[in-house]
Amino acid sequence: MKSDNKDRIGEEIVKRTEIWPKGIAIPEEIGIQELLYSNPGKHELGLTYFTRYDTDRLRPAVLFIHGGSWKGGGKTQFYRQALYLTRKYNIFSVCIGYRLSNVAHYPAALIDCKCAVRWIRSVAGKQKIDIPPENAASPESKRRCVKTAEKTQGRRDRKPRQTIRI
User: Fold this and answer.
1) How confident is the model at residue 71 (pLDDT cuts 50, 70, 90)?
2) Which of 73, 91, 102, 132 could form a disulfide with 85 if both were Cys (CB 3.0 to 4.6 A apart)?
3) pLDDT above 90: percentage of residues in the chain
4) How far apart are the C-alpha atoms of 68 and 14, rounded to whole Å?
5) Structural domain count, the chain
């Protein structure tokens, strides 16, 4: 019973954060593009990216993976943050959708997120994205990501690496 209540509260919070406020004007120098980045089985996975048209130098990219415990939510949850980072700091911002747990079992959502990272790497030259030799993350975040990634790749018996190569 408590778990159901927690899930319901979590879903309500996610729904409230996904609302794109009315009256937000997209600046002329910002481009927004929606496209499909993967098509596993019968599922079409979409992303939305925010970019500045006047980019003449390499810039970082940020991948927004919406919250919802892999059970709910949508890519629109971080549109405001993506727009802000793109406008203020010239960051290539990407918001993705992935297969939720009611559609595909774990680790499908994680595999979809990895696919989105590969898509960003594939357009790095065209979009002037600076791809560092290693993924940038805090040490704790790296440790959790490596542990999770290894579970999806059958590496449970091996010592975790310090970085994830996607």
Assistant:
1) confident
2) 91
3) 37
4) 7
5) 2
